[in-house]
Amino acid sequence: MKIINSPFHFKGGIHPQYHKDLGDREAIRELPLPAKLTVPMSMHLGAPAKPVVKVGDIVKAGQLIAEAGGFISAPVHAPAAGRVKSIDQTVTAPGRSCQAIVIETSPEQEWELMPPIPDWGSADPKTLLERIGAAGVVGMGGAGFPTKVKLSPPPNKPIDTIILNGAECEPYLTGDNRMMVEHADHIAVGAQIMRRILGAEKLRVAIEDNKPDAIEAMAKAFEGVDGDVAVVRLHTVYPQGSEKHQIYAVTGREVPRGGLPMDAGCVVENVSTVYAIYDAVVNGRPLTRRVIEVTGEGVAHPANLMAPFGVSYAEMIEACGGYVGKPAKLISGGPMMGFAQANGDIPCGKTTGGILVLPPREVSNFTSQACISCGRCVDACPMRLIPSELSQLIEAEDIDGAANISLMDCVECGCCAWVCPAHRPLVQHFRRGKAIVNAKRAAERAKQQEAAKK
Amino acid sequence: MNAITVSTLCVGGIGCVSALALAVADKFLSVKEDPRIGQVADLLPGANCGGCGFAGCADYAKAIVTGGAELNCCAPGGAEVAGKIAKCLGRDAVDVVKKVAVVMCGGDSTSAVRRFAYNGINDCAAANSTGGGDKGCTYGCLGYGSCARACPAGAIEIANGIARVVKSRCIGCGKCATVCPRKLIKLVPASETVHVRCSSKDKGPAVKKVCAKGCIGCRLCTKLGDPGAFSADGFLCARDYSQPLTKADDVIAKCPGHCITKDAD
């Protein structure tokens, strides 16, 4: 099994303090089953799932409780056996409200698994793909794109490279690293299942060079796997885990503007997702739990927990010894791209990679000032944009002007805001601008559709 | 011939040929526009606010004459303009109720709590998507002034952490209602002065925890007020503007949520 150094290095990026030692001290442990689980119906990109159970129903663990709500959607399964207490509204981490099935868990846990497919090496790729869809597997790196859709590219877009994303470039987060160290063999099986579905020749495992244990474990796991397989040792730089940048770092190809990884002949999947693919196919277990890291200096005992979906952030923090002093900031995800939360009453879902608690000394309550045109954001931007000018155009309400200089290509990684000496909330400006452009485009599309009807 | 004569003849000749070509083009290629469109456009106020749902006054005028659009869509013009257009086109006059915008939230800084310190950009939609908004009440006005910036008439003021519409300046275009991320702004008949200024659908105790001027859903107003003047949906009461209200003072004085108020101006 060869380990190659990343041959390409994208422009820009930043080197924040990583604090990865906090949660990476011990192995992943199982969270004791909570008494109540609030399972959101929108844990993925696309249409929310539609509940198929009623209030009062007794459900087994792993039973289908909500079916996919459209083509780009994913079904939801009961994370634990129990009784459906209510079907309510809940607020999820990005601040949107959606339906949720509240399950009162029972002490005896009975599982309802799908039939395992142990002979995946000779099984029909379509059967494997259907299974991944039926198990509700979605991208667990953060965006939650349904994996079945990702693994069925149109025939005119051939895929020749599969990249397993183990970069984990966000500071603090170590869940993927733990998964690679502890479940390397299973991830290797999942990768081969993906390769069987896509028929790609090359398999690459992309890991940043600050995770030597994971690189070693993955190299060992792929020992003896035939074909063009390699572990790529990436430079440690944020945002190395971004799909587009990782494709460049591994293959030297660029994803065209507005395009998807498949336009560059690649499919990128997070290692936790690949583990979920393995679990769904080989064990027949639907996606009902994941590794969630509770970390930060504001938590007593930071750790990686295997937690069922629907457990609240507050319960997760409680399981890690609770807060140290008064927390200043609670973030869902990593510090760079995560969502700040108002309180811990938020349920964990398929895309919750981490819960970060920062104490007051780690949080600067800055006042933002006018742009001083120093150009540091331009140097840092890995998408080669001009954040300073973009933000000023958006502030002046010239949204079209910002769109003309590639506002929509911003990946919201936050490098610009991180380096800005004037503490300008650049990413927030871009999110606002992008939302306005998207709303405008949607309105235009609706208008065109109406005109086409006439 | 000297140079001056040659150039005069050349330029003059080109001018004559072009004039002829334009005259011919005008005869055969001209687009006939209904003269009434111009007349109607002149009658409209020319604010180009877009409140009618068309792209400006000229577009609305065209829609009235050619598409048979309703005459009462122009909020700034009101009954007067609608009447003039009806007369001009020989159509029947229509009823126009002048409407103004009202912010259905009374939770200002002194009565409503904030959950956390927000120090991001000054925009309501951006604030609303940061941890669900910093206001304790997830229904209430955030007070970052997106509506005020959208208002073409400068009729919205942000004071004490909440938006307030100055009735005399409001032209009723409804632009503020579309930009409000919490959909708090409603267009109501301008003659109405009493409103339930709360949009929280939460139960009483939850409302009391975050705001001193919130509707607790006690439904006292539906009993004290004139029949039908107030309606209740779950834990939120609302004024039904289709019914008259005569006992306003009594209702305002006795509302335990202190959320029914009378316009000052």
Short description:
The complex is a heterodimer of chains A (454) and B (265). Chain A is α/β, with parallel strands linked by helices and 454 residues long. Helix content of chain A is 28%, strand content 20%.
User: What fold name stands as the CATH topology of the largest domain in chain B?
Assistant: Alpha-Beta Plaits
* DSSP, total strands of chain A: 18
Biggest pleated-sheet summary of chain B: 2 strands, antiparallel
Structural class of chain A: alpha/beta
Alpha-carbon distance between the termini of chain B?
Answer: 81 Å
By CATH reckoning, the class of the largest domain in chain B would read Alpha Beta
Indicate the low-confidence ranges of chain B by residue numbers: none
Count of alpha and pi helical runs of chain B = 10
Category from helices, strands and their pairing of chain B: alpha+beta
Range of strand content of chain A: 15-25%
Radius of gyration of CA atoms of chain B, rounded to a whole number: 27 Å
Total domain count of chain A = 3
How can the largest sheet of chain A be summarized?
6 strands, mixed
Number of separate domains of chain B: 2
Structural commentary:
- The complex is a heterodimer of chains A (454) and B (265).
- Chain A has helices spanning 125-134, 147-150, 175-182, 184-198, 212-221, 243-251, 271-282, 313-319, 376-380, 387-395, 399-404, 415-419, 426-453; strands spanning 2-5, 29-30, 36-40, 50-51, 58-59, 64-67, 76-77, 82-91, 97-105, 161-166, 202-208, 228-234, 266-270, 289-295, 303-308, 329-332, 339-341, 354-358.
- Chain A is an alpha/beta fold.
- Chain A folds into three domains: 2-17 and 116-282, 3-Layer(aba) Sandwich (Rossmann fold), CATH 3.40.50.11540; 31-108 and 286-362, Roll (Ubiquitin-like (UB roll)), CATH 3.10.20.600; 376-453.
- A six-stranded mixed sheet of chain A has the order 2-15-14-18-16-17, with helices on both faces. In chain A, strands 1-12-11-10-13 form a five-stranded parallel sheet, sandwiched between helices. A four-stranded antiparallel sheet of chain A has the order 3-9-8-5, with no helix packed on it.
- In chain A, helix 1 packs across helix 4, helix 4 (184-198) packs across helix 5 (212-221) and helix 10 packs across helix 13.
- The longest helix of chain A is centred in the C-terminal third of the chain and has 28 residues, at 426-453.
- The radius of gyration of chain A is 22 Å and the shape is globular.
- The mean pLDDT of chain A is 93.
- By secondary structure, chain B is α+β, with helices and mostly antiparallel strands.
- Chain B has two domains: 35-89, 3-methyladenine DNA Glycosylase II, Chain A, domain 3, CATH 1.10.15; 99-262, Alpha-Beta Plaits (2-Layer Sandwich), CATH 3.30.70.
- In chain B, 35% of the residues lie in helices and 12% in strands.
- Chain B has helices at 3-29, 35-43, 57-67, 78-89, 124-128, 146-150, 175-179, 204-210, 220-224, 248-254; strands spanning 99-103, 156-159, 162-165, 185-189, 194-196, 230-233, 236-239, 260-262.
- In chain B, strands 1-4 form a two-stranded antiparallel sheet.
- In chain B, a hairpin with a 2-residue loop joins strand 6 (230-233) and strand 7 (236-239).
- In chain B, helix 2 crosses helix 3 (57-67) and helix 2 (35-43) runs antiparallel to helix 4 (78-89).
- Classes of the chains: A alpha/beta (454), B alpha+beta (265).
- At the A-B interface, strand 17 and helix 13 of A face helix 5 of B.
